Amino acid sequence: MSFLAAYQDLALDVSAKDTPAGINAEEAKRLSRTLAMVILAGGIPRRLGADATGEELAIDKRRAKRVAHVLKQSLTAWNPEGQPLAIDPDIKKDAAQLDWEQWWIEHRKWLENRITYVATWASKIAHKPEDIQWAKKAVVRLQNELNWTAYALRD
Q1: Residue 58: helix, strand or coil by DSSP?
Q2: How far apart are the C-alpha atoms of 98 and 116, rounded to whole Å?
Q3: Contacts for 55-60 with beta carbons within 8 Å, 24 or more apart?
Q4: Which segments of the chain does DSSP mark as H helices, in order?
Q5: Which residues, in sequence order, are CB contacts of 122 under 8 Å at separation 6+?
Q6: pTM to 2 decimals?
């Protein structure tokens, strides 16, 4: 449990209804939607507008390609059987308006909070050894996504 102790916040309320299977499903759904948005953003020609330079467009495409790769790897870790990408009008709109800097601030904060939540869930709710083992793996998956995405957004 010492690995998870570094990420716990015992003042945080966690739901007793959460299960490893439920959290896996939530993460797969989140990653599927985010991956679809990033793939769509990378496929929009001149997404940054008519005033964007060739270099800015190239950086945007490179970021989309790198982040999509990270998200695919993360999605596979959470759901090895595969998860269909959900594409709806909201995702298309979000893809067209994607601002990498703002997205990364929000995404990083979400991942950090999720790591804390899973670690706290393990200490407060999980009592079976297999649930604690799952929580350790989940925290590592979230940390990997965090670190890999930070690296993917380099220029």
Answers
A1: helix
A2: 26
A3: 59/155, 60/100
A4: 2-5, 20-43, 54-78, 89-96, 100-124, 129-152
A5: 1, 4, 8, 131, 132, 135, 136
A6: 0.92
